[in-house]
Design brief:
Strand order of the largest sheet: 1-8-3-6
Radius of gyration: 32 Å
Helix content: 40-55%
Shape: elongated
Number of helices: 2
Oligomer: single chain
Strand content: 25-35%
Length: 218
């Protein structure tokens, strides 16, 4: 555009900056959600508890999978700030827990491998704390409302895609570990069978040689 700007160009620039500010505000508002993706090692006869400060009205989503170790099972427990047990399970390989916080404070997420005395467990879990339910904002005039809805929709879809990818990566790691364990077992079993066959062959040779050995004196 030529300077000084015409009235039409000024209106166009003003509209552009308004849309840019709206997008930035929408992104900042959506950044209130928190998400943790961790892979931890739980030793035999050990118990691990994680704590997260959660505000009343926020949505909690916890999903975990046992990637390796033993029978791929773990005990778990979710406790509220008041000490109320919200969810518990024994010998679970995977689980999905969703809950809307009814009180503010530190929530406790515990994983126990105390029932195992020899085998440690590798655990992958995703903890997502969504932003609290906000009051519905009045619709914006013009295209601003459409831009805000589009930004929120894109952010939601990208978040869902990332969760699915993380879930698939965890399942792939778990299945790869199972395949490697089976491969190791088959390898050792085949080696033992080969050694047993060689031992049987050696014993048969020794037995045949004894049959044809002449020990009589002429």
């Amino acid at each position: 555009p030529t300077w000084p700007l015409s009235a039409a160009n000024k209106m166009a620039f003003a509209s552009f900056f308004k849309r840019l500010v709206l997008v930035m505000v929408a992104l900042c508002c959506m950044a209130n959600a928190r998400e943790y993706l961790l892979t931890i090692r739980i030793d035999p006869a050990d118990n691990i508890c994680l704590h997260e400060e959660i505000t009343k009205g926020q949505t909690i989503a916890l999903e975990f999978q046992v990637l390796s170790g033993g029978n791929l099972d773990i005990d778990f427990l979710v406790r509220s700030p008041a000490g109320v047990i919200l969810r518990t399970g024994e010998r679970a390989s995977d689980h999905l827990f969703e809950h809307i916080a009814l009180e503010s404070g530190p929530y406790q997420f515990c994983f126990s491998n105390e029932f195992s005395t020899l085998t440690g467990k590798d655990l992958f879990f995703v903890l997502e704390v969504d932003r609290e339910n906000r009051p519905v904002q009045p619709a914006l005039e013009g295209d601003f409302g459409n831009i805000s809805l589009a930004v929120e929709l894109i952010q939601s879809r990208l978040h869902e895609i990332r969760l699915v990818q993380d879930h698939l990566r965890a399942r792939e790691a778990r299945h790869r570990h199972v395949a490697e364990e089976n491969n190791t077992r088959v390898l050792w079993w085949s080696a033992c069978e080969a050694l047993l066959m060689l031992l049987c062959a050696a014993l048969q040779v020794i037995a045949v040689r004894r049959f044809f050995r002449n020990t009589s004196k002429v």
